[in-house]
Design a protein that fits this description.
Length: 90
């Protein structure tokens, strides 16, 4: 599991409201890079946006730094035929 974190409030203080775009572009680039690297290594990868980030802040000890996780990335062995989509059923 990879948990990229950002000091969003520090970015907003430095560049104003456009900081939201900068933070989201950065975190999106991180996710895309991990997906690309995982594909090149034939490793399964997934990203989750809806999670309890307060628990992650506490577990990772990020309270003092002001960092917050914006997404979590899971990587590992890919299951054979993970989707197993049967088109004839639709």
């Amino acid at each position: 599991m990879l948990v990229p974190t950002v000091r969003t409030t520090a970015v907003l203080d430095a560049v104003g409201d456009r900081g939201y775009r900068l933070v989201n572009a950065t975190i999106g680039a991180v996710a895309q890079s991990v997906y690309t690297a995982a594909a090149a290594l034939d490793v399964g990868c997934g990203v989750a946006l809806g999670f309890d980030n307060i628990s992650y802040i506490e577990e990772l000890g990020l309270e003092a730094t002001g960092e917050a996780p914006l997404l979590i990335m899971m990587a590992g062995h890919e299951r054979p035929a993970p989707a197993d989509y049967r088109h004839e059923l639709t």
